[in-house]
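Table S2 (continued). Query chain:
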Amino acid sequence: MIKAVVFDFDGLIIDTEYALYESFCELLDMSPREMPIKEYATYIGTDSGDLYEFIRTKSRDPISIEELIKKSHALHKGKLEEPVSRDGVTEYLEGAKKAGLKIGLASSSNREWVETFLDKLSLLHYFDSIQTADDVEKVKPDPALYQNVISRLGINPSEAIAFEDSLNGSKAAIAAGLNCVIVTNRITEHLTFEGFDLMLTSMKEKELSDVINEVEKSKYREKTV
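Corresponding output:
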């Protein structure tokens, strides 16, 4: 029986990922053709170090990691001055709360980044446990973030559904033993996912109760085969 839902943050609750992609393209004066989203997307949902190094190699002119971080952060921040949650997010959180489910969040970003946006979106109060990069030695695809959330919620991993948008995030959730529902975005729709229970293009596609029923039925069929 599902007792909890655990959400990723970047790209799932708010589309910070496409805004960052646009920032890099603007900074380096590149078109999407010159920086293919399919390649870029493989660096999403984990530590930013590899992503910045990838972007640096795409630059036509020499640029240091420090300069890249500073300039891209300024552009990114400007694009997110008036954040909007993705379709269906509030409905899922409200539905989980009404159903008596525990609600967690597992993000590879730092706590200040996550909680600042959740506060702006008036969503912070929904979460019973939040784990970020500040709380673990290794972020996704390592399962530590999810393991921490599950431990703090006091349930078994199999009793939770993780909602993820990225490949690294889904690997972390599955490795931690959670059921995993993929909700793709404009960046991660280009990736090939494995081992998930259900895939959506938006939380508006299915109500939370229907998602939970499908996951539980799927697990029941696996046990009876």
